[in-house]
């Protein structure tokens, strides 16, 4: 087993869901060791949290800039090699940029930046750095999503005609109907979250899943948002018609106010030969549908799956795997890239996915604000 990769964590302290998801994912395949961090902007809380999760406190720093400065003073074989950026959206770009410029690999939460211009700038910095950049579109780590990607690549569906992706949640219902609460939540504050809430937070996962599985690119969008209240600046619901090619159309449906929904990400892809359907809340089932054959169900861990899918399965068939395993597969792919090992280009989302995501988000906002018209992506 190669020596563990030295990992730094920025953000994700306290009861942060993203924090525990990333920490557990980094441990699952025994590739990483957390050696330094700034979990929280309050230094006392930062130290207390490090002690709570048993991370040595000698490299728990007061702030992000101090972490970079002090780590660079250490010998190269001791300093942090890769940093996970788990902060609110508005900090992703400046932190990722500084890390890359100073020779650190980066694993970053999405959306990658606050806007498309920042994304293109970060892409240039990344290209100059020669470092690994992984974007945590978590759902690309599921074995059956990877199975779908490889089967589509191998022509199992034939020419694709129609794509339908949805991501329905209900969590903002608890705050959106309370004027005081909706004015204080950072995800509904454009200065912290960016220009979009619903599409920027979850709709972009659906669009990424479309491009990841089909190998096609979204070329233009027509979008209609719902803000619910006149004083709310951010979309909490949206429907996006998409064109991927002359004869390939689809829809992305996303909502944070879908009452009673939990984490309802799902995708259906229809081709001339067959179709696939997959749901995040039932991740171990990939359905292949046909007009001429009975419904087929693919499940993880079986020898009939592709190498990319099997590499993402850590336990035998019939043992459920979930969101922690999915994120762990992205960390595993990033570890291979950091070590200079061979890896499949589907093992982790990259800078390109981040740029595509920001282009999609901005184009949907432009489409809605310009009167629900078609807008081309770059």
Overview features:
13 helices, NAD(P)-bd_dom_sf, 378 residues, Rossmann fold, alpha/beta, GFO_IDH_MocA-like_dom, 14 strands, five-stranded parallel beta sheet, nucleotide binding, 21% strand, Dihydrodipicolinate Reductase, domain 2
Tell me what the structure shows.
The structure is a single chain. This protein is globular. The protein has 13 helices and 14 strands. The chain is α/β, with parallel strands linked by helices. It folds into 2 domains: 134 residues, NAD(P)-binding Rossmann-like Domain (Rossmann fold); 197 residues, Dihydrodipicolinate Reductase, domain 2. α5 runs antiparallel to α13. The mean pLDDT is 95. A 9-stranded mixed sheet has the order 13-12-11-10-6-9-8-7-14.
């Amino acid at each position: 087993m190669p020596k563990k990769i030295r990992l730094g964590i920025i953000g994700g302290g306290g009861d942060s869901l993203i924090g525990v998801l990333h920490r557990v994912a980094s441990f699952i395949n025994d590739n990483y060791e957390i050696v330094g961090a700034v979990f929280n902007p309050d230094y006392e809380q930062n130290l207390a949290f490090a002690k709570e999760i048993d991370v040595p406190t000698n490299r728990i720093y007061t702030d992000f800039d101090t972490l970079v400065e002090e780590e660079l003073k250490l010998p190269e074989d001791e300093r942090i090699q890769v940093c996970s950026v788990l902060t609110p959206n508005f900090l992703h770009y400046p932190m990722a940029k500084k890390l890359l410029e100073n020779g650190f690999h980066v694993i970053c939460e999405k959306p990658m930046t606050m806007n498309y211009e920042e994304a293109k700038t970060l892409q240039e910095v990344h290209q100059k750095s020669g470092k690994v950049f992984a974007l945590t579109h978590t759902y690309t780590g599921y074995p059956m999503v990877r199975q779908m990607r490889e089967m589509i690549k191998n022509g199992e569906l034939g020419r694709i005609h129609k794509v339908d992706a949805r991501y329905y949640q209900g969590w903002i219902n608890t705050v959106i109907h309370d004027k005081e609460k909706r004015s204080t939540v950072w995800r509904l504050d454009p200065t912290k979250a960016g220009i979009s809430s619903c599409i920027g937070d979850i709709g972009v996962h659906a669009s990424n899943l479309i491009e990841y599985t089909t190998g096609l690119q979204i070329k233009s969008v027509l979008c209609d948002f719902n803000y619910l209240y006149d004083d709310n600046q951010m979309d909490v619901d949206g429907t996006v018609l998409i064109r991927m090619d002359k004869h390939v159309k689809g829809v992305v449906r996303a909502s944070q106010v879908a009452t009673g929904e939990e984490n309802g990400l799902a995708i259906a892809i229809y081709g001339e030969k067959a179709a696939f359907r997959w749901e995040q809340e039932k991740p171990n089932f990939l359905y292949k549908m046909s007009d001429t054959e009975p419904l087929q169900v693919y499940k993880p861990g079986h020898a009939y799956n592709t190498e990319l899918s099997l590499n993402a399965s850590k336990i035998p068939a019939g043992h459920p795997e979930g969101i922690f395993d999915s994120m762990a597969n992205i960390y595993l792919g990033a570890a291979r890239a950091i070590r200079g090992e061979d890896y499949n280009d589907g093992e982790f989302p990259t800078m390109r996915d981040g740029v595509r995501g920001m282009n999609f988000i901005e184009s949907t906002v432009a489409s809605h604000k310009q009167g629900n018209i078609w807008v081309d992506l770059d």
